[in-house]
Amino acid sequence: MFGVVFPNRSFPMDISTFAQIDTLHWILDMNTFVGEAYDQVREVCIFLLNNFTLPPDKALAVYIQSPGSPFMFCGAITLARPSAVLSLPWPEPGGQLQLTAADSSPPSAKIGVSVEDLASLPSLDVAADQKIERLAMKVGENLFNFMQSFCGVDGSKLIVPMDILDRWFKKFQDRAKRDPEYLKGFAL
């Protein structure tokens, strides 16, 4: 059905590496893969295998879980997007790490994969959405700082010159043309 590879860390692995929970859910115990260094694994590439057809309204959703934390959605693949490299922003371990006498192994990090309705998923790539949000925030901060250097105060209002947006945008474009690395600094 699907395979995964951890870029620069593994060879491709098929579904047999995962423990099947039921017909729609699989779990990879990171203890068997990297032990306690799970948080060093920052990306996973998941892909549909050639002979498997996922219904067009379904997706394979990827989740991660640090020991004691809830599962967190990372992204998904579909028939129209049959592979993806997803960031793994591991959550902080949770507080439920006490072992009982019945526990034979310590809690471990996990990667979960499940077949879900495409319409119910928030995004196919959570990390890409977060990068876009950070980019927008940094550009907005740049504009605010530029405007602040030219504004005056009238009571509780900021007064700025009428052409301030034009001046900022021209300066922004000129800087981006002169220094190709300038825009990359906004995307970090």
Automatic annotation (TrEMBL):
Domain of life: Eukaryota
Record-level GO BP terms: protein import into nucleus
InterPro entries per the UniProt record, alphabetical: Hikeshi-like_C (IPR048364), Hikeshi-like_N (IPR008493), OPI10 (IPR031318)
Molecular function via GO: nuclear import signal receptor activity
GO cellular component: cytosol; nucleus
Cited Pfam families: Hikeshi-like_C, Hikeshi-like_N
Transmembrane segments: none
Family as reported in the entry's similarity comment: Belongs to the OPI10 family.
Name the UniProt record assigns to this protein: Uncharacterized protein
Species of the source: Punica granatum (Pomegranate)
Classification of source organism: Eukaryota, Viridiplantae, Streptophyta, Embryophyta, Tracheophyta
